[in-house]
């Protein structure tokens, strides 16, 4: 199988194991060892995988790290595993931190089987960074994530390439976090920075305060335009696919409903794989579901009446109504769509 197929198979295994592999040992056997196998290691070869690796540190004697992964004669990865029920944000990984320095390794890996965090020493040589430079989520990943993960495959290993990518990912993550925070609530300094490009008057406090909602709206409109452009390109690319006839002639998915579905999909893709957002048409409305499961509704498009509106469901299955004048009005419901899809991703 290809690397992509191996990861997809591992993801299925992880979903199945999620409900039963509650202890650390069960998680290691059910998911972590298969993950190392996906990275090209023979998990039964002690020259490649050393379980319960011991490297005494100062006064700390007999401490063990779950796995040391060797490539050639050198330990390149240290792996600390937690139970599948552990939230990695709350996990203690002091052993991984200490061993990273002592073993002169390059990559530290912290995982609960579902989420895999990769650490290196970008901030100070031989000292593991406090934050991971790359996070891989087996339950939610895209092609870019796969490309990054494949760099850690034993046959592809190059610490120079990984560290170069780590540096880029670190700064990319920082830039994305900054942009997202300014998008949600631009601060005075950022508004002044933007306003200098188009406002000719004096940027007093009152002017900056008035410009703040305009800058926020500019972010929203830019996102809408870019998403709409991608949707238009998708509709215009290639020959039109023939849609099979529906047995009930009263049910017809209109081009407007398809465009609406593509917009909801584009928004949902911020928090989930786009393939998990599906369409199911009905006579009075057009339903958008998570995993094509009617018990996991995302939204319903009511476009057949005089008043067009979108119903977006919350985690409690209560629907919120958004009246819209045209397709672009769907973007008003962006946060509600992200919230419900994110809820389904976290509660699978």
UniProtKB/TrEMBL annotation:
Residue ranges annotated for the Type I restriction enzyme R protein N-terminal domain, each copy included: 63-120
Pfam family of the protein (one): HSDR_N_2
Stored InterPro entries: HSDR_N, UCP035009_HsdR_All3000-type
UniProt-recorded name of the protein: Type I restriction enzyme R protein N-terminal domain-containing protein
Organism: Devosia equisanguinis
């Amino acid at each position: 199988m290809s690397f992509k197929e191996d990861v997809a198979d591992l993801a299925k295994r992880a979903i199945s194991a999620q409900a039963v592999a509650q202890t650390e040992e069960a998680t290691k056997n059910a998911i972590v060892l298969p993950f190392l196998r996906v990275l090209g290691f023979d998990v039964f070869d002690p020259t490649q995988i050393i379980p319960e690796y011991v490297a005494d540190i100062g006064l700390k004697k007999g401490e063990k790290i779950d796995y040391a992964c060797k490539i050639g004669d050198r330990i390149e990865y240290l792996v600390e595993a937690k139970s599948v029920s552990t939230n990695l944000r709350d996990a203690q990984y002091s052993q991984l931190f200490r061993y990273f320095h002592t073993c002169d390794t390059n990559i530290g890996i912290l995982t609960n089987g579902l989420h895999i965090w990769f650490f290196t020493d970008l901030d100070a040589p031989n000292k593991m960074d406090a934050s991971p430079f790359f996070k891989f989520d087996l339950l939610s990943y895209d092609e870019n994530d796969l490309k990054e993960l494949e760099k850690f495959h034993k046959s592809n290993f190059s610490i120079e390439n990984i560290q170069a990518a780590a540096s880029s990912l670190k700064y990319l993550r920082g830039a994305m976090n900054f942009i997202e925070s300014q998008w949600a609530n631009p601060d005075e300094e950022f508004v002044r920075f933007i306003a200098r490009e188009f406002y000719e008057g004096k940027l007093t406090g009152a002017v900056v305060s008035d410009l703040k909602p305009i800058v926020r709206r500019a972010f929203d409109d830019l996102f809408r335009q870019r998403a709409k452009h991608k949707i238009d390109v998708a509709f215009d690319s290639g020959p039109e696919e023939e849609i099979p006839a529906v047995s009930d002639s009263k049910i017809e998915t209109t081009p407007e409903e398809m465009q609406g579905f593509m917009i909801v999909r584009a928004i949902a893709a911020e928090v989930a794989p786009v393939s998990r957002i599906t369409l199911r048409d009905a006579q009075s409305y057009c339903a958008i579901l998570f995993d094509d499961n009617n018990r996991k509704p995302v939204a319903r498009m009511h476009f057949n009446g005089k008043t067009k509106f979108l119903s977006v469901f919350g985690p409690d299955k209560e629907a919120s109504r958004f009246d819209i004048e045209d397709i672009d009005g769907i973007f008003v419901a962006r946060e509600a769509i992200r919230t419900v899809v994110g809820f389904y991703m976290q509660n699978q």
